[in-house]
Amino acid sequence: MTRRVLMLLIAAAGAAGCTPTYRVHVNTFSQAKEPLSQGASINVAFDPNSRNPILAGKIASKIGTMLQDLGYRAAEKSEAAQYTLTFRAGIDVSDHLDYMPMSRPFGGYYGFYGGGRRGYGFGYTTYLPYVETVYSHWLEMRLYGPGGATKGKIPLWIGEAAVGLEDPETRQAVNYLLVGLMEYFGADTDQWVTVTLKKDDPRVLALAEMP
After folding, report:
1. Quick check: 190 pLDDT over 60?
2. Strand 118-120 to strand 73-74: parallel, antiparallel, or no bridges (unpaired)?
3. Three-state SS for 97?
4. Which of 74, 94, 160, 200 falls 20 to 30 Å from 173 in CA-CA distance?
5. In degrees to the nearest 10, what's the CA dihedral of 39, 41, 46, 48?
6. What is the pLDDT of residue 191?
7. Quick check: 87 and 142 in contact, CB under 8 A?
8. DSSP category for residue 112
9. C-alpha span between 44 and 143 (Å, rounded)
10. 1: nearest Cα among 98, 134, 137
């Protein structure tokens, strides 16, 4: 993950407490000579020997549903599909130092010198340091042409997405990653772009309700 993306994730996580939105950073690459045809069959493949095959299976199911919503057909076997889509998901943990403002009032005298009136000043502000943990969730997809096998083949399309949260739960973060990344499925963004999603985005809620 690049330093620029990491800084964007930290900034987004820092603002998460102020607004119920999440910023998903997306970068996609394509070398396809023509757009994917509507109705094309796509097999979503995942490694059953992965560290968490149950979670991988759930992510694959969500991707398959989103592809069908985009007008593609799901294929159970890669050999019979026009395209094969693979994916990887993970999380990086980082700590960064920040400062929290703290107002401190103070008492004092005001009025004429020697007078008996007592008042209070406006006080002053100090900044207390604290360490915040940011969980950088990421998702990568690769789309391959027909043939089934992907080893040694160059993908037709690669998509990357990342979001910084204060929660390490991947099952929740992947919903935002999928919605952000699938907005550019098959396309080339030419650079990192930011997709801002509200916490109650219907697409996110629909994915969260899937078993």
Report:
1. yes
2. unpaired
3. strand
4. 74
5. 130
6. 96
7. yes
8. S
9. 9
10. 137
